[in-house]
């Protein structure tokens, strides 16, 4: 009997871990795509009212979907568009706007660190607010995980911004034929920055799901 119970416990633990990893991949993909598109629109592209509004729309939809994945994975939510959940989403969007604004107003390497610290603070608040929105127990472990996850995302965001501000290198491959077409692979620093940002976002959310699903 004890062997059967241990096997069942191990099976539940494995399923929870796989669920957490899968949810972290989905969440990281959504957040990286939303933040990446917004970042390219407002930083790497030509700024206008239309691009700013489009960037905000992408950022808000990405944040809302990201929070929906967290809620569906950790609790049995029935409606994502409640006032408190929209408020938590707006807190996340505000965090990214404050991050970029602080970096640009301060400027230089110091601006990167100031903006990163502000982003980490706002994300910590948003993560804790998100837990309350979905009625998850507030524990010391949960608070520490929120701080750790926010710090990881802030580091990734700092690397992303540095790749846009301080790196202008690019890599061009040799032309190669594909049927009747000739292709060239072009890799820029900002693309690597987005990729690194996505890795940090995944690590942050994987830690959050692990803490929530594996008490």
UniProtKB/TrEMBL annotation:
Q: Which UniProt keywords apply?
A: Membrane, Transmembrane, Transmembrane helix
Membrane-spanning segments: 21-43, 49-72, 84-102, 108-129, 141-163, 183-204
Superkingdom, natural source: Archaea
For this protein's source organism, the top of the classification is: Archaea, Methanobacteriati, Methanobacteriota, Stenosarchaea group, Halobacteria
* Name this polypeptide is given: Uncharacterized protein
């Amino acid at each position: 009997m004890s062997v059967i119970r241990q096997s069942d416990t191990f099976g539940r633990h494995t399923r929870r871990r796989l669920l957490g990893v899968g949810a972290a991949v989905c969440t990281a993909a959504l957040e990286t795509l939303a933040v990446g598109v917004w970042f390219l629109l407002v930083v790497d592209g030509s700024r206008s009212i239309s691009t700013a509004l489009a960037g905000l729309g992408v950022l808000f939809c990405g944040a809302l979907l990201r929070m929906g994945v967290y809620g569906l994975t950790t609790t049995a939510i029935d409606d994502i568009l409640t006032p408190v959940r929209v408020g938590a989403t707006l807190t996340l969007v505000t965090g990214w706007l404050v991050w970029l604004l602080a970096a640009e107003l301060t400027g230089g390497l110091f601006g990167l660190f100031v903006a990163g610290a502000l982003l980490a603070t706002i994300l910590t608040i948003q993560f804790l607010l998100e837990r309350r929105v979905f009625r998850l127990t507030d524990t010391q472990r949960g608070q520490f995980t929120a701080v750790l996850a926010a710090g990881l995302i802030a580091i990734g965001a700092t690397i992303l911004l540095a790749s846009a501000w301080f790196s202008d290198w690019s890599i061009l491959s040799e032309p190669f034929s594909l049927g009747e077409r000739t292709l060239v692979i072009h890799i820029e620093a900002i693309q690597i920055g987005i990729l690194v940002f996505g890795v940090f976002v995944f690590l942050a959310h994987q830690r959050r799901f692990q803490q929530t699903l594996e008490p």
